[in-house]
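Key idea: predict the complex, not the pieces.
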Amino acid sequence: MPLDQELKIVFAGPMGAGKTTAIRAISDIPPVSTEVENNDRAACGKESTTVALDYGQLLLEDGTAVRLYGTPGQDRFSFMWEILCRGAMGVVLLIDGSSATAVADLRTYAENFHRLNPSQPLVIGVGRTADADGRQLDEYVRVLTSRGIVAPVFNVDVRQRADVLLLIETLLCILEAQLPEANHAAS
Amino acid sequence: MVARRIALVKPASVVDEKITHALQLFGSVLWAFQGTTRSTWILVDPEAAEVIVVHEGNPDQRIPAWRDAGKLIVEISVRDNPSPAPALVYPFRASQALALLERLDGQLNSQGDPQQAAAAPSAGVARQNPEPWSFVETLRTIAEVQNGEAWLVARDAQAPCLWLRADGAMYAAEQATIQAIRRGTLNLASLSLQKGVRPEGGPGSRAGTELSWFAAYHASASLAPWLKPAVRYRVTRWPNFGLIRPLPSHIRVAAALASAPAHADEVAARASVSVEEATRTLNALAVANVLVAAGDVGSPVPTSVTTVAPRGGFAAFLSNVRKHLGLGV
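Result:
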């Protein structure tokens, strides 16, 4: 099946933000990850990283498959974002809140995905914050608002399945709100 | 006799022998006084436990997840300045440990299902309150004052039960109190708020936005005094649901209001919730400062998603996805 004909959710974000972990938390199959040794330790300290994409899947009881794609984190693979996002139900953007480039990453990724498809549901999860009162995220919201992007920005820990599900549920609700035909799916 | 499941979490490495002794002593009390408490306390693994006993300052990263899952976390302190109740301070007497067990038993009885983190209102204490908005108004006021240095302590008839930073951005309470706030079973409007100090080594701090959200949500089934029934409102930015841990219906209402302005009746229809649920969520969104009257700012540009149409239509598809993932419906 062509990529743009699939039912899919895209997990995006910079290297080390937790895309692989998030997919692993909800996928019905062990995620297929094309990970290799990370030779860009200056950008991110983790040992291995995804060079092409991660793939997971939800197989619904009626046989429908929902594909879960994790985009590669490195900038040089940004051409893949457009390919993967075409026809997607939405994008879950993950940001590492402890990174010195967190705000810049947010700006880059959110602007890019918003430009590719302004109507595509976008949900943002920020991990590794030392932000018990949520004020770090207020700055993130200001950055998005100043660019005309209204998207949910939540503190999350993608190692917790419940947090990944919160992002997915929010994405589904946005989709529902934008698709009149989908209304009452939750009732 | 009710069986209660309790776990003792020993430190991964011995940092202070007193901690080991304290947990051993607690375990011994459980064993020696079996059959003398109202409920039977059975030692189990933490994942299966309703109550988990740890030493104060235990860095185990599973503890926040257990707490979020509704388990009661009891800290035993070996320090001179201990946590507030229900922590035990080592060395403690057996009678103190037994009193703690009975108190925990009472909390579990009043909690019902401890896994349920929040609940839609049913009988609701707030409905019987003549001034349902007094606590919420206090939160709104202190948020404007922005004094992040001081702490306030809220007391019920007997004792301090909630600590609130004076800018409203953080609060602290024992797990049972947090559950009661989220369920709306604690009558916040009846609490007296005074200047106090943050409990040293006490319960961990949580985001004040969670407190204000559920305080507003449970305050009244009617629209808050500062909202107008005839006005259409919309969400200009999303609340931080990662900190609030909302009910699924809250997310649906927020999404509906982010896509187009509405008043309570309209958003109820769009989000497939009751008008009361929509009204309560509007109140919570207003207190979270994310709600504006539609005329105050430009309306959002209507958008339509261009995504692949699932076989059988979106309604059935989204329902199947939720069912598959066990998402709250």
